[in-house]
Amino acid sequence: MHPNSLSTLVVTLPLPKTTLKRLKSVFPTMHYHPDGNVPEAVLGEVDVFFTSWDGLPHSMDSFSKTPSLALVQLPGAGADKAVKGPAFLDALAKGHCDVSLASASGLHVLSVPPYVVMTILALYHQLPKQILIARNETVGLLGYGHIAREAARLMQPFGVTIIAANSSGTRKKGEGYIMTGTASIPSTFYSTSDVKSFKAFLSRADILVASLPSTKETRYLLDRERLGWLPHSAILINVGRGDLFKWDDLLTALDRPNGNAEGEMDLATDILLHNVERLRKGEKLVNVVDIKKGY
Description:
By secondary structure, the protein is an alpha/beta fold. The chain has 9 helices and 10 strands. The longest helix is centred in the last third of the chain and has 19 residues, at 262-280.
């Protein structure tokens, strides 16, 4: 199939009428199955899937029934469920996959980063002395993707020191769908793969903002010992996946003595159409998920 022939779209998630109208203007043929039940005859002609957070219908146990399929676009940033679908697991077992899976990483920058800043302000205003964020506070961003970049931009005017930790410990060039106005701000990067570096990062984080996906590397990354590396008065805001820590470990850390949708779906559609346009031009897709890593 030539990229320019991307003509048939299958949508398996509920969408507003206005969004469906946008999609119909781009694809000559669109099949809408929000219940996830896609007839086999339709599978045989689909070029692009716009799926729910769970990914492809579980009735698809391989890609043998979708010979024209080029792209599976998710509506959210997380891909951990989608990569565990039968079709992608079958492709992994065979050692190759001709179908691209793309997330909608980047669509949450209008909602989650303001929530981060709002939460920080709310927590500090609730302290007995009504202390505002001081200029000597350090905000540690665990994971530095779209959400963390925008949160850093919003927090910068408060005069905080912003540091970040990722798997490499180095500043990476922004990739994927990046909204205009976001920036790379952290003064220092640390590595989650190096124990000494990660401990140094956590020990500096007066405010820890976690925005990690769910992978085998990040699952329970903040165990009881590592939570103990945080300052005693640290604030933890997790806007990533919930399996970053075990709840018992978090409760133990909290018991320590201390001193104190529709708009996003439109953005997901923007990313889908952006990817389709790039694919038709023969250009590299954005937000491509590594199905082995899960993100």
